[in-house]
Structure formats: structure tokens, C-alpha cells
Amino acid sequence: MKIGLIGNPNSGKTTMFNELTGSFEHIGNWHGVTVSEKKAPLITKYKQRKMDMDIVDLPGTYSLDPYTSEENVTSDFIKKANPDIIINIIESTNLERSLFLTTQLLELDIPVIIAINKVDQLEKHNVKIDIVKMTSVLNCPVIFTSSLKKNNNGLDKLILECVMTSRFKKGQRPVSIDGIDINANEIKSYSNIDKLRHRFIKDFVYDIQSKKLNDKVMRLQNKLDSVLAHKWLGLVIFVIIIYLVFYISQVLIGPFFVELLVGFLENIQNSIANIFSQANPLLSSLLVDGIIGGVIAVMGFLPLIMIMFYLMALLEDCGYMARVAVVMDRYFKKIGLSGRSIIPMIIGTACSIPGIMSSRTIKDQRQRRTTAMLTPFMPCGAKLPVIALFSATFFSNNALVATSMYFLAIIIIAISAIIIRKITHDNSKSYFILELPDYRIPNFRRAFRSMLNRAWSFIKKATTIILLSNTIIQILQTYTFNLSQVVSPEDSMLAIIAHPVAILLIPLGFGTWQFASASITGFIAKENVVGTLAVVFSITNFIDLDNMQLATNSTTVIQETFGISSLAALSFLVFNLFTPPCFAAIGALRSELGSSKWLLGAIAFQFYIGYTSAFLIYQLGSLLIYGAFGAGFIYGFILIFIATMYIGYLINFKKESND
Amino acid sequence: MINLILVLIIFMIISIAIHALIKEKQKNQACACCRHKCDVDA
Asked: What is the DSSP letter of A602?
């Protein structure tokens, strides 16, 4: 039996899906987190009469007439997937808005069961709902549910109702008002149908719901909103909160767990090194330094990332991130983006791929493509090890450097959005309506589960793609093209391959083959930057507190090994953050842009932005600190000048074509 | 002998990593076909 979960955005569909199927799909206390359908079998705990069921979670929609592509997924599912039963999830405190979709679902020939979700909110808001009356008027079962609870959540009753409904199938009856059935098939004018629906819903909700506004709760919510969503104060608070997230994860708590993990992994590495101490040094080095050392270098950052993801999940769950979207909206509108663009970008702080995918909630094609193109500029989880390494090694206030990378990303996104708007000559504006969820105490267990989920993905990447890359890097730097062992590292295959790229990087301050190879492998997966640096500089781990003292910022060992200045380190960091993302994210970008011309343009533009930002930081920084431009200024300037002229040509060329 | 064991271990680790990578890719491709969301969160 196939059961579809359908409802408005943020009505709790994915939370119910996770509870019913034991899945760990990402949920967020805001609109637009689910953008495609997900299917999983019902877990044994909820099984009734041994009946197998497949539960399908669908993107939230306000109506069955698709407006955006993710709403289309829901509409398509109903038309083509032939679900046996539809569970229509209604948010208990938002009946009036939710029932519009319900009236449409009741017109289909598919049995509908209504789940009034988030019942715990009813008491908080002093709302009472007469479900007996609701059942009789809508002619379908209505059940109270609370998917956040583990027990007594109404879900067993809901599934039992599904079993009963499937056994005694009966045709669904559309709602009727004044004796007229609201049936889209019979009434031709859509505006007339919608008017009828709204009229019916208004009267119906008045009949079944008694509401006493809890002034105290509302006043507190409004007061919080007036501060957190304030046009400039909201921005300042956002900066402080992000700073705190970094401070807690990278300075306060993170290093303690890093020390434990790295100590444990190092012991394993040393034991393996001892076992193979008599073996061929090249082979044992490949295993101990290349494979194990590279993986440890990346895995060492896992605690920092886990704590950061945990804090971000808490912020999302308590309803704060929706306020951030509102704060950013007024600025984003001015630069030709949709206020909705902030959502993919915030999702992109975990991983660019779901961030890029969620840009499909934006209706306007140009804004959608621009958002997908610019989302990878937000530093994702994979870039965190690079940020953590360079900010802690070269700068005393690492939390401040890490935070500033996020705000530099926002500035770069703003500048890029303006350039793209000028190139496309599309000045259309869109209006952003986001329903602000109520503030709530975040669910710590759910945030923990979300953190574990992301940590597992990180571990999978570290032990597959990064392990393989490090192995190849170790082999390439151990042998020459004649397959003989290298005498000087400069003769290695890796040095020779990376050398042409290194020349291009001289104007950015880090034109050595080691940094060039790290930048190249970063396109496979961004964590590779750290892994490759570990292999090429023969540093087994970066976070050994006894040897490197990274956490206490006495970092001369790594600084000396890297052989670059703090300015060049900042330039390298910026280059890796703002050049094109990993291949997987480029794949997601290709499918969302839907045009190879836009994809090539996006990659070229990301290279331009990453290269130019790093160039400006290194060269202007050199001028300010040392009184002279750094090495390679002239040819770096020529490269950027040519690219800028080409962008200027594109802007004017289109302008003339439009004229 | 110890070198042979070492080669075998390295070969095994690389094979497992490649196998896991291919499996992950196949899972993502299958998911893309039926429009299911995959575990793409980092």
C-alpha cells in the first residue's frame, strides 16, 4: 500500500515521515526544506495487522495547481503515482490556510485521511478543534497527531485508520456549500471555485475552532521578532550568533574533542607503523603516511564540524533561521535576488548540493539560476577543515577569521548577483512571503541526529574519495615519470603536473606546486585540500596539540613548513572558498541550471571571482603592509583585466542587443 | 612476506574504497531516476 504525505510547507510532513519510517531526512523549522519526493517502508513499531506500507514524503504545497517546480512534484505524484491513501497533514494552529489544499484533495478519487499535526501547539495557543464535526462535514477520518513525540503521538491510530480505509474503500466526496459540490470538474471558472472554497473554509473554521489568543505568548513572540528580524539590529545579532557558533565549535569545546580523537587515531597509526617497520619503506609510507595519515588529517576536523552542525541545527529548529531569511530579504531584493535565495544559501552552509537543489523553490528563472550559481560561494561543511586549519595556523583570533569568511561570502554573493543582473539585463523583482514559524525550544535529540547524519557523510567521504585521492597523491609525489623513486620532490610526477598551475597562482602569493596540487584535488572534494597538504608536506596531522599546538595558536611549525606568509595563507583560503565547488556540486548545478551555456558561464565566473578576490587580498595587502605589490602583480593584473573586459563586453553587448 | 601482506592490505583498502564509491554513485543515480532525495548532506 502506498501512502502519500501531503500538506502545506512546514506542517511537519518530514518529521512524521521520519517517525513512521525510521528515516533521518533533513528537517527544518521553515518553508522549503523538502524539494523532492522520498519513499520508505513503514517501520514495525507502527505496522497494523502485518500490512506492508510505503510512505512517501512530498514537498509542501498550498494548492494542487503547481506554482514552483517542487510543488509540481506533489502534483505529479497524485496524478501519476496512484497512491492508495493520502494523509493530508494540517498544522493545528493554521486550519484556515491548510484547508484550501484539503478541499482540493477531497475532489480526487483517492481516500483522504486528515492528520491535524502539532497538537501540542493547540494548548499553547488556547485553540480547540471539534474533530467530530470536522469528520462529518469533510466526510473523511480526522486524527490528532504530534510527530515530535515518541509515544502517544496519534500515529498508530493514523496508520490503523489507513488500514481500515483501505479495507472498506469508499469514494471520496467533495465538500459542499449551499448544496453545491465544490468540484473543479464541474465548475469551469477557477476564480469561482477558489471563491467558493475560501467562503466554505471561513465558515467551516468558524464552526469547528474556538480560539482564545494567548496575548502573553503573542506579545513575547512579537517582541522577539522586532529585535531578531529588525532591519539592521537583526544583521548585527546574526553576526554575533555566527561568531558564537564558531567560537564555541573551534575554540571553546572543539579542540578538546579534537585532542581525544586525534590522540586515538594517532595511536592506531603508530601501532600500524610499528607492525610494518621492517617492510619496504615506500610501501609502508604509502599506507601509514599516504592512506592513514591523509585520512587522519581530514578526520581530525570532525569534532569541530560536528559541534558546528549541532549548533546550526538548534538555530534552525528554534525558528531563528527563518528570521535571518527575513532580515536578508530587504538586502537581497536590492541586488536582484529573491528573498527566498537566502534559504538555499543557508542550507548550503552544510553542503552545497542540497542548497543548490533547494533553489528550485524560486519561480523566476533568472533568479533561480543566479541563486544556484551563487550558493556554492557559502562555505560548506567540506570547506570548514580548510577554514579551521588556516585560520588557526596563521591568525590569532581564529573564530573571527572563520566568521569573516561567511560574511565575505555574503559580500561576494551580493557583488556577483549585481554583475549577473547586469549581464542578463533582467531587472525583475519578486516578492518574498515567508511564514514565520513560532519560536520554540529546539529539540536537542533531533539536532543530535542531524549532526550524526552529517558526520557520517563526512566520514564516508574521508574514507572513500579522500582516501583514494591521498593514495594517488602519495604515489605521484614518490615517483618520477620514469617510475623511479624521486630524489628531490621537485622531480616528482605531482610537482611536474602541478607546476603550470603553480605559475598561475604566483600573483596570489602561493605559487608552489604543493599548494597548486592541493587546489586541484580540492575540486574532487574540498576536504582534499587539507588531506593533500598533509601528504605533500609530510605532516601526519594538523591538530596534534602537543606537537603543533594549533589550538593554542603557537603555530610556527606549520607556518614554517608551509613557507608562506599570513597574507598568502588568507589569499589561499579565499581562493579555495570562492573558486568552483567540488565535482558533485557542479553536477547538481548542471541539473538545476538546465543549460550548458549557464553551467560553463557559472564555472568561469566562479573562477574569476575566486581568483580576483585572492589577487586583491594578496596584492593590496602586500601594498599596505610592505609598501609594494607582491610577486607576479603585472601578469595577474593582465589576466584579471582581460576577464573584466570580457564581462564588460557581455554587459554592453546584451544592452545593445536589447536596444 | 611482510611486503606481500602490506601490498595485500593496501590493495584491499583501495578496493573497498572504490567499491563504496561506486555503490554510492549507483545509489544516487537510481535515486535521480525515480526523483527520490538521496543522502547528499555533508
From this structure: H
Residue A39 to residue A44: CA distance in whole angstroms: 16
Place of cell 535571518: A324
Distance from CA of B30 to the nearest CA of A (A): 13
Contact with chain B for residue A155, Cβ under 8 A: no
List CB contacts of A407: < 8 A, sequence separation 6 or more. Answer: A239, A242
**ipTM greater than cut 0.95:** no
Q: Nearest-CA distance from B24 to chain A in Å?
A: 10
Could B21 and A457 be called an inter-chain contact, meaning their C-beta atoms sit closer than 8 Å?
no
pTM over 0.90: no
Q: What is the pLDDT of residues A268-288, one digit of tens each?
A: 988 998 998 888 888 888 888
CA A226-A227-A228 angle, 5° bins = 105
Report H helices in A375-510: 384-394, 398-424, 444-463, 465-478, 493-505
Q: Which residue bears the cell 589550538?
A: A551
Report the C-alpha gap between A412 and A374 in whole angstroms.
Answer: 9
Looking at the DSSP assignment, which residues form a beta bridge with residue A479? A485
d(C-alpha A162, C-alpha A47), whole Å: 11
Binding-site residues on chain B for chain A (CB distance < 8 A): 2-3, 6-7, 9-10, 13-14, 17-18, 20-21, 24, 34-37, 39-42
Q: What residues in A contact B7, CB-CB < 8 Å?
A: 283
Over range A521-548, report the average pLDDT: 72
* pLDDT(A182) > 80: no
- pLDDT, position A600: 93
Angle at alpha carbon of residue A645, lines to A640 and A647, rounded to 5°: 95
User: For residues A367, A373, A379 and A381, what is the CA-based torsion angle, rounded to 10 degrees?
Assistant: 100
**A366-387 average pLDDT score:** 89
| C-alpha dist (Å) from residue A557 to A393, A422, A553 | 9, 47, 11
